[in-house]
Design brief:
25% strand, 3-stranded antiparallel beta sheet, single chain, 267 residues, 28% helix
């Protein structure tokens, strides 16, 4: 007959084994992809400008002094002793805020409506207005997001709001940045909640499928919310295994307590 020490060791070993089985993953991302096959996606993706975005906009040209009036809020320049003008890396961190009407106030050009435009389209708009106004013949315009962010919630490594410097983040990258999925995550219920034209829309994804590349949310937009639904609506194999571990541990503890009580009575 096993003594108390042997019973405890056996119980701990069994619990550790079952816990290990419960924590191991049995899913594979994009498991319907085939080696050697090519899966197209929108590699030219650009984020779309929304209200309350902040943009860093810098206008340059061969004669830098001509560009200075267009960089009051977005760029910084220095003038050397010999009169040469050069761009400085220390621009205005505040940038240009897109107001609630989708507009920015740009030096010389005035009010520009840019909501719903891609960054390249905003650059083209500014270039065209500078050329049409005969201010600069060949201007160059660079634009970057200053506050591109997205939020991750639900059954995932760690939740929170994340930022991106270039505004180009895929759904897979966002999941990785948030600590990856877990055994508590529903792989077929990864939602992206997006605001479009003042209305919220929800898109559902199955991360096991290559169809995720065809989703309009494969590349995130500003202020997207990613929600990973947990498996609380049904008990899967991992959850049942955890229940068995808890039950077995309780059983072992009870048996040990009874044996200890019996042995104490006999003494």
């Amino acid at each position: 007959m096993m003594n108390i020490k042997e019973l405890l060791i056996a119980g701990i070993a069994a619990a550790a084994l079952l816990s290990s089985c419960a924590s191991s993953r049995d899913f594979v991302y994009l498991n319907d992809m085939e080696a050697g096959q090519k899966y197209p996606f929108d590699y030219r993706h650009e984020a779309v400008v929304q209200c309350n975005d902040r943009l860093a906009i810098t206008v340059t040209c061969k004669q830098m002094e001509l560009a200075m009036p267009f960089n009051v809020n977005g760029g910084s320049f220095s003038v050397s002793q010999d009169g040469k003008v050069a761009a400085s890396s220390n621009g205005n961190a505040a940038g240009y805020r897109v107001d609630n009407y989708g507009n920015i106030e740009f030096p010389i050009l005035g009010t520009l409506h840019i909501e719903g435009l891609k960054l390249s389209e905003v650059a083209d708009l500014i270039k065209a207005k500078i050329i049409d106004g005969d201010y600069i013949k060949a201007p160059m315009v660079s634009i970057d997001f200053l506050n591109f962010k997205y939020t991750v919630l639900g059954a995932i490594g760690h939740t929170g709001t994340f930022t991106s410097e270039d505004g180009r983040v895929t759904l897979l990258e966002a999941i990785a940045n948030a600590g990856d999925l877990s055994n508590r995550s529903r792989l077929d219920r990864i939602a992206v909640i997006r605001e479009t034209n003042g209305k919220k829309e929800i898109y559902l994804h199955d991360i096991r499928s290559r169809e995720i590349f065809n989703s309009p949310c494969f590349f995130l937009q500003q202020n997207d919310i990613i929600y990973v639904e947990p498996k609380y609506k049904k008990k899967d194999r991992e959850d049942k295994t955890l229940q068995y571990v808890t039950l077995f541990t309780s059983f072992v503890t009870t048996i040990c307590s009874v044996i200890w009580a019996v042995n104490s009575t006999r003494k």
